[in-house]
Amino acid sequence: MNTTTETELAPQPQRANDYIATLGLKYEARFVPQSYSRNAEDKTPTLNWKIKISNERGSIDCDYSQGCGLIPGYQQRLGNNYAYSKRVIETCETGVNRLLGFDFEKTVHTKGYGNVQPPEMADVLHSLVLDASALGLSFDMWCEEFGYDQDSRKAHAIYSDCVDYGHDLRQMLDLEKLQEALQDY
Question: What CA–CA distances, in Å, run from 86 to 42, 45, 117, 138, 166?
Fold first, then answer.
């Protein structure tokens, strides 16, 4: 007798999204200009978001960042082009995709712009599940595992955030089932 369900046969990330859909979570993502984000001092442009995930049992508020390579239309080969680099930075500052419809060889704009799409909830939950792995580790073990300096206050603050995210996830849902659903995501 075959007890395998359609969801179990589905490829990742569909399996993860199918499971997440059953959790009754509310998801909000608000774009944050890079100059106002936790990455404001970084030279590499990033897309930055304030995320809130909630249900009747609790909520998580967190920052979430994505590399500029996730901007639709991004082409790494044009990274040294001044006009292109400027538009990547503008996109990360405004949330409006300044790369779409721009012919960088001719330096002409050919189409309209569009807002950058927020990250998928599954991507954010996957990141939070990875952060939650700090729950089973002491600070020293966590530093060793993830390459942080044990004498760093910044590292300790990151560790504390990860532990808090783990506690919040456990309060909201079955963390082990979520980890299983996001395995190999």
Answer: 15, 10, 20, 43, 38
